[in-house]
Design brief:
Blueprint lengths: L13 H4 L4 H7 L1 E6 L4 E5 L5 H11 L3 E5 L2 H7 L1
Parallel strand pairs: 2-3
Antiparallel strand pairs: 1-2
């Protein structure tokens, strides 16, 4: 299980944040935090939500490293 993290631990990459539609992010409660060559770090309410992780990964075309954020922090990251 992923540990709860805080948004302050990340420097949100605006280029990464723009990879997903804002409406999708708000509806599914996800926020892209950073990207590397091999994965994208995504904040979400429940990082164990396999279907959501798979959906985000498919939309981005790369693996996702999910981390848990609360709803307020997700909105702040968007």
């Amino acid at each position: 299980m992923e540990a709860f993290t805080e948004l302050s631990q990340y420097s949100v990459d605006p280029a990464a944040a723009s990879l997903l539609d804002v409406d999708f992010c708000l509806e599914r409660q996800v926020a892209l935090l950073s990207r590397a060559a091999d994965k994208v770090t995504v904040g979400m309410l429940d990082p164990r939500a396999r279907d959501l992780v798979a959906d985000v990964s498919k939309r981005l075309g790369r693996p996702v490293q999910p981390v848990q954020l609360n709803a307020y922090e997700i909105r702040q990251a968007l």
